[in-house]
Amino acid sequence: MKKSKNPKPLIVFYALVFYVFLQFGWWAYLIFEMNVEITDLKKEVAVMKDESSQSDLSEFDNALHKKLLMVIGEGSVFLTLLFIGFYQVKKSFMREFSLARQQQNFLLSVTHELNSPLASIKLYLQTLLKRQSIPEEKKENLLSKALLDVERQSKLVNNILLAAKLEDNSFQFKIERINLSRTIEQLIENHPQDTHKVEKKINNNIFIDADLTAIQSIFTNLYENALKYGTTSEPVEIVVEEQAQSVALTVKNKGTTIPEKELNQIFEKFYRLGDENTRNSKGTGLGLFLVKFFTDAMGGKIKAASTSRGETAFTVYFKLSE
């Protein structure tokens, strides 16, 4: 069943807003009518007593005009404040609703991400236990696959722990002079894969002042996203180079185009393209959040670009170490 785009509480909210404005208009009409009737009664009383000339009667009209202007002025101010209040309430509600939906997607994806490696590891171990006569080469293959699943699960848990530490400000940055070129080379070597060709353009001995754990998290998340969403027939490009007084780390792939309106949203916590029930790619919506947070915290900048041809590039800029 397809979920409604507008939640039921929002429909009730719109109905309430409509009722309030309708009642406001009705009260305004009654106030106008009441002032007109009071003025007419004053005129009739004055005429009956024969105490008023034509000029005196016009004073009643002037007084009525002033009262009506005062009602219009005060009503306009009240209506403006009421409109602003309703707008802010709706904005806050939609923000909370969006966050709740993202958290729900996060729980769905985490459940899947934790369960899949466990199921695979269980299958590999059961195979090894039940089939004692498996050739050594086959055993090594099964154990290697189990180890990869353990590493995958370990990375997921690390991302969740890092996000939790950032949430309560318990992560302690240890800024030191880092050889970014060597660090990126080591991370690529420690992440063997045979699905994509990797093209590297890494200038030697580029140093930055940064936290090593944060740099590892930034590159690992960008690199794994490039492998995950990139077309296997196209290479993943990694560039580390100096640009004036800064260092640029670029991870580029060709695959799914990111809509321009979502290029900034992808860095939000739990945010993922598409719906959790229909998307095929794995993930929790924490990777790019961590990338953006760590980059900003260390004084860097990140830029995302995606073309209609499916070319997507993430570039992180840091100040060159002196």
UniProtKB/TrEMBL annotation:
Alphabetically ordered keywords of this record: Kinase, Membrane, Phosphoprotein, Transferase, Transmembrane, Transmembrane helix, Two-component regulatory system
Domain Histidine kinase per the UniProt entry, residue ranges: 109-322
InterPro entries assigned: BphY/WalK/GraS-like, HATPase_C_sf, HATPase_dom, His_kinase_dom, HisK_dim/P_dom, HisK_dim/P_sf, Sig_transdc_His_kin-like_C
UniProt cross-references to SUPFAM superfamilies, sorted A to Z: ATPase domain of HSP90 chaperone/DNA topoisomerase II/histidine kinase (SSF55874), Homodimeric domain of signal transducing histidine kinase (SSF47384)
Pfam families, per database record: HATPase_c, HisKA
EC identifiers of the protein: 2.7.13.3
Reactions catalysed according to its record: ATP + protein L-histidine = ADP + protein N-phospho-L-histidine
SMART domains the record matches: HATPase_c (SM00387), HisKA (SM00388)
Native organism: Salibacter halophilus
Listed GO biological process terms: cellular response to phosphate starvation
One GO cellular component, as annotated: plasma membrane
Transmembrane domains' residue ranges: 12-32, 68-87
Protein name stated in the entry: histidine kinase
GO function term, MF aspect, one: phosphorelay sensor kinase activity
Enzyme class: transferase
